[in-house]
């Protein structure tokens, strides 16, 4: 797998796999999901909202989440690692609070306590990234699957139309349905947060904030040195061009005057110029 120019995505995939494996090895999975009753209402364990997005509790969700994040690494390449990391942290903070609050205040009372479980995993964050991927990355091609062998090929309603992005959406949909309705709630909240961030519907402090450069392994001084090196290389490319132009003009002048210098005279001129 290639994570070129996507260090944040690589860290997310490796970190998600590591925390999920550790939670299973040390048998602490019961700390990462939320039951409104009793965790919140009776035991007042508000700290669970800070933990439930750190890992998944089964290997299937880890696999689908890692594949989805990997397929959406183009978002980081388009934005840059600093902006992408800022978006991930902002979405993580918002989605850590909204799904538990919506579940406890609205959905659980409306369902008379039947909707009480919020599963572990960063599904809201992944769907926030998926909203950006859907809005900014165009499809390359489309194809149609016929519903029957006798369907005419020119009929638009004769089959299902997909694009090259469809299988990425199918991975994400499967992730949202693993432990529904709790996982579906997280996916819906993440999608709304992603589009709100993109359309500047969130407060300015969320959309304009950026992580420091050192967080993503880039320093301002190194960037300045990189721009300075690029400027020097461009100037260096211009200098040989000017030198070649001057030499060509000099050669044409010598040809016009009928003078030709021998190899020995050229070597003497170079030695004289050195002293």
TrEMBL record:
Gene3D superfamilies per UniProt: Rhomboid-like (1.20.1540.10)
SUPFAM superfamilies on file: Rhomboid-like
Region feature Disordered, mapped onto this chain: 230-262
GO BP annotations listed: retrograde vesicle-mediated transport, Golgi to endoplasmic reticulum
Subcellular location: Membrane
Membrane topology category: Multi-pass membrane protein
The organism's place on the tree of life at top rank: Eukaryota
GO molecular function, one term: serine-type endopeptidase activity
GO cellular component, one term: membrane
TM helices/strands, residue ranges: 49-72, 84-107, 169-195
Keywords: Membrane, Transmembrane, Transmembrane helix
Annotated InterPro entries: Rhomboid-like_sf, TMEM115/Pdh1/Rbl19
Keyword flag Glycoprotein: no
Protein name: Peptidase S54 rhomboid domain-containing protein
Organism: Phialemonium atrogriseum
